Amino acid sequence: MITAEHGAPLVSLRDVRFAYGERSVLRGIDLSVHRGQVVAIMGGSGCGKTTLLRLIGGQLKASSGVVEVDGRDVGKMGRSDLYAMRRRMGMLFQFGALFTDISVFDNVAFPLREHTNLPPSMISDLVLMKLQAVGLRGAASLRPGELSGGMARRVALARAVALDPMLILYDEPFAGLDPISLGIVGQLIRRLNDALGASSVMVTHDVHESLEIVDYIYFVSEGRIVAQGTPDEIRASSDPFVHQFVNAEADGPVPFHYPAPPIDSLLQGVRP
Amino acid sequence: MNAFFGGIVGGLRHIGKLTIDGVWRLGFITRFLFALLLASGQSVRRIHLTIRELYFSGVLSLLIIIVSGLFVGLVLGLQGYDILQRYGSADAVGVMVALSLLRELGPVIAALLFASRAGSAITAEIGLMKATEQLKAMDMMAVNPIARVVAPRFWGGVLSMPLLAALFSAMGIFGGWLITVVVIGVDDGAFWSQMQAAVEFEYDVMNGVIKSFVFGAVVSLIAVFEGYDCEPTAEGVSRAITRTVVTSALAILALDFVLTSFMFRGQ
């Protein structure tokens, strides 16, 4: 595992703020991903972690602050620069987002056919290699509808790495998977990252699986980074938020109750 | 009194909101059309993408178009014969069938059927691709979804609509011939020769083709736009499909009036 600094980071966010209209989602995020690292961004649902991933992929632009990927400011890129960057980027969507009208093989071949002029025989070899890497070469002719959730996630992973990207983004890669699939996907994320010499950013709330495979973790709550560290530091952390998150406690710094007037006022007949 | 004025203000505000929303949407659909046209190069360069859509919206609509065309022709033949024979001009039934189909019923009914068969399917497909993040995934793979998904479907619809309308009219004329000549016994020669003499290629046939082309473009644009713009949920997709069919039907009928008033003013 690579934990030390390796020159300039591949991804760096500096004082990034983001708001949907009036609603502030991210408030001053500083974060960096070094080459070769697998970094997890964790936090409860709706804390702004998926927004972070979209900022890195250039699907959204920060309201202020700088989002840099490989030394270039994503917020200042035009469409063609953005597409040039995305060709070197793979993304795994929450439920795979496979194209349902074509086979598994054609799904993995899609980026190759769109972006390269390789002959069909070579595309076929590359696709089967990627499918072999995720253990699904035998499923090449199936339709996405015939796959289980875990298999679909693995096919999507093969598609995300089809062009050997420098950076792989994962949006909730473990959501809705059974324990076996979850372990497989986790191991694949680590192995593919190391085999390709890529870097990975993973948005998740699955603490235990993530602690096994990542190099560094950022905890996000209410649009801020509230804690960060290596898996060992996180396990040993006495931070109340990290403690609540890692131990899955219902109440703590993240309150159980949605903000409401005190219950006493309700009992006295005062309606909100 | 206050409540009365409050009600009026509320009503006006509602009308204002509807108007502003409508104008917004119109602006958005226009921008969408420009983006679509700018991204259409790929639909030509990779023609197999467009041909595939031509198959889905054109070839798969053949059955409904042929069967409906036949029945419309049968009914026109019966009604036309019933009315014309009162005036002793039953021989002119061929003219009546041909003109009503070529000028009006062919383009309009074929477009209505096209909107409900192919338009709804296009909206559903694009809407579901959006709901399952397939469009976003494509965009993240540096593939423009408007060029790859939307434009070929649009052009497939635009190209197949005039062909379907022509087929509809042809089947209708065949149906009219079948019922009046074969079943009722109108003179075969009179049926065809009067039609040949009365139907002008440019005035009657080409105006009908222009109509069907316009309807095809409008229905296809509405279908791809509603799919692309829908709320990415099951409910949102179902509402988008309904909007496609309803808006298309209204647009077809209103445009038909506008086009007819420009095209057919009596020579």
From TrEMBL, chain B:
UniProtKB keywords:
Cell inner membrane, Cell membrane, Membrane, Transmembrane, Transmembrane helix, Transport
Task: Offer an example of a GO molecular function term for this protein.
Answer: phospholipid transporter activity
- Matches recorded under InterPro entries: ABC_MlaE_roteobac, MlaE_Permease, Permease_MalE
- Provide the membrane topology annotation: Multi-pass membrane protein
Cellular location(s): Cell inner membrane
A Pfam family assignment: MlaE
Residue intervals passing through the bilayer: 22-42, 54-81, 163-185, 205-228, 240-264
- Domain of life per record: Bacteria
Oligomeric form and interacting partners = The complex is composed of two ATP-binding proteins (MlaF), two transmembrane proteins (MlaE), two cytoplasmic solute-binding proteins (MlaB) and six periplasmic solute-binding proteins (MlaD).
The family assignment reads: Belongs to the MlaE permease family.
Q: Which PANTHER family match?
A: ABC TRANSPORTER PERMEASE PROTEIN-RELATED, PROTEIN TRIGALACTOSYLDIACYLGLYCEROL 1, CHLOROPLASTIC
Name this protein carries in UniProt: Intermembrane phospholipid transport system permease protein MlaE
